[in-house]
Amino acid sequence: MNLFDIYDLMNITMAKVEGPKRPLKEKIVQIYEAFIQGEDPSLHNTNFWDEFFLLRPNLYFLENQFEMMTYEEVSALKETINNLFYQCVRILKDGNQIRSMNALQTLCALVHGVYGKTHVDYGFDVINLLIGFSSAEHLMQTLIEQLSHILSHEYPPSLKCLVLKFLLILVTATENVSQNTLLEYLMMNSAFEAIIQLLNDTNSRQYHGYDAAANPYIVKLSIIDNEMSLNGFGQVVSQSLSDFNRKFCEEELEPHYNFFSSLTTFIENMFVSEERESDKHSIRANNAVLLALYEVVHLNRNFLITLTHCQVDASGSSASPSPSELIDVKHSSVAIVETELPPSNLLVTFLEFSSIIMLNTKDESNVNTCKLCFIILTCITEDQYANSIIHDVNLVYNVQLHRMLFFFLIQSRCVIEKFVHNRSNSYQPLACPMLDLMVEFILSHMTKSLPFELYHLCLGVIHRILCYQKERTCSVTLSVERVMDSPYHID
User: Fold this and answer.
1) DSSP string, 7-67
2) In the 8-state DSSP scheme, what is residue 383?
């Protein structure tokens, strides 16, 4: 045994004697734990709070503790929370910038944590737990006055940003504004003049305004002109949307698709609850991909060429197969050859995807996805170059739109109209299926609870397309009567 072996053996023996070392806790965490246990560390230390606010707050630990505690446990700490809130307000008048920033961060965590534990219907619980009824009015007046003082005087921009963030937390603490009782104090003691003063000053306006925190990724995305990069971006989005379309078609075509089965399904759905309807399809849209598509369509005009021109993806099909092709795929192991599929592009795939999302707007997540789809279509139809492409008679595609069975009244007669997949096999400019999709939404979603926001976006898309056609004196082969009559069905 050499000297190194003896040294290693001694280290192992000493480690066994000492036992495993526990990770050291931050001093601020130890103080938080004392607060949670109902202790008051400031009783025997007159300088405790001055020292406490020199420590950097651990917001992650503090918010986690609120999440783990029940409402009863939080209520038991009312006196501790009231005292901590009072000390945060008091320290803001101290003038020390480090203490003020730490106090504001602590206030943010307290407001967020208490609002997360109080009952939604009882807003006064927040006032009682945070401040206490007896001192609420005076303390909130002092707090807002001090926040206004920081905003309107020479303080570091980082401290002013923190004040604005805290005010934002106060305003948005609850989904229902009428249940946010702290807003009453903000109305009685206005910080409006201080905020307006920020806007009046050029430097503060640039620092705290909308463009203060520019997203470098968005800036770079808006100036990309590399064709290969844009095509790659489009292929990723197209593949995700195509997978969604394919899975939906496989579910819809199982076991058989005919008129009577569709009619039976429609009648059953009239008596099915919204919960069952929303769970009908297990597949879910990838909204992250849609957000990426929105950003690039909204910011980068170079992407419009990628959006509207034919794409070929070596890793998969560029479009969803027709229903008959899907049936053949399901009952045979022979894969569809890519060259047998009709030409497609990202916009074709997106229109098919949108028609699927439109089928079920009882589900809130689908409503949000549908809204995002309509916003993307709005961005496309707002661009003159994109309009020229979708109206180009030399660029024609066959778009598969998925439709729903619905009832509507025409001239006092009840008419049952059935739309099946791929109603028309003709190739048309992309403006035709886009208008057809919007008209389909208007006619098939006339429910008691009308989705006004979706209708507003839908009519906006139709309006922009028709304005372009009138301006350029061009027309597309689509039933003009159906387009013009569709808004009257909303009445």
Assistant:
1) HHHHHHHHHHHH-PPPPPPPHHHHHHHHHHTT--TTTT-TTHHHHHTTSPP-HHHHHHHHH
2) -
How far apart are alpha carbons 16 and 13 in whole angstroms?
Answer: 5
Q: Spell 360-396 as b/e; 16+ CB within 10 A means b.
A: bbbbeebbebbbbbbbbbbbbbebeebbebbbeeebe
Whether the CB-CB separation of 233 and 239 falls below 8 Å is answered with: no
DSSP string, 50-83: HHHTTSPP-HHHHHHHHHHS-HHHHHHTHHHHHH
Q: For residue 37, which phi and psi values (nearest 5 degrees)? A: -80, 5
Say if residue 252 is exposed, middle or buried (CB neighbours under 10 Å; 0-12, 13-18, 19+). Answer: middle
pLDDT, residue 94, reads 80
Report how far residue 449's alpha carbon sits from residue 486's, in angstroms, rounded to the nearest whole number: 18
User: How far is residue 168 CA from its own chain's centroid?
Assistant: 18
Q: How far apart are CA 357 and CA 309, in angstroms?
A: 23
Instruction: Determine contact, residues 489/408, Cβ cutoff 8 Å.
Output: yes
The pair of structure tokens assigned to 351 is 């229109």
CB of 191 closer than 8 Å to CB of 144: yes
pLDDT tens-digit profile of 278-320?
A: 344 456 778 889 999 999 999 998 998 888 876 654 444 444 4
H/E segment holding residue 326: helix 323-330
Residue 397's beta-bridge partner residues?
428
Residue type, 382: E
Gap between the Cα atoms of 471 and 462, Å rounded: 14
